[in-house]
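tool=predict chain=A
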Amino acid sequence: MENFEPLFRIAIDGPGGAGKSTIAKLLAAKYGIPYVDTGAMYRAVGLKMTRLGLPFEESEELTAMLEDTDIDFAVENVILDGEDVSGLIRTQEISAAASDCSKLPSVRKKLVALQKKMGETRNVVMDGRDIGTNVMPDAEFKFYITATPEERARRRYLELVNKGQEADFDKVLEEINQRDYNDMHRELDPLRKADDAIEVDTTNMNIEEVLESVVRLIDD
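tool=predict ok
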């Protein structure tokens, strides 16, 4: 795929732990286009709200905070108000905070506007929960990447253990199921497969197999 006229945009949706971000990064590298991790944007807002002690509800304080919030990407780093928070936003606590703040209309309005602007005029790979349905409904390629909750919990559990963090598989599974429920039942832009998205179940696939499958679908 060498001709990116007029635009070459890849939208990837799916539940947490299915491999969206990993595949999105690999696709961005393969095709030489930017990668936007929308989940990291919600995590960054969740981190800031947690630091400030703001409750996960609409308030004047939240509105003021959002007006004074800047989120950017430098290579694979997430920059929140000039600070590299890449490592700080990957904890279970901030994962839950991201899910909570993503339900708030003011947070979604702010971040979706930023994401739509990124996807309107440039080639991009973007992953999240509502990219193909809301942020880039006219993307040239749409994928819904999923896996069973048990497999996603296993991956997350191993990731935590390999980082030297304490982890309990049953608790990780419970958190994944809860986040799935929250994402799929929130009032604003719930997680769902776009009608024209191609579903890829990664339960019994490794990263190389998933990438090969997606690239084949794009290049065909």
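The chain has one domain: 9-219. The chain has a mean pLDDT of 92.
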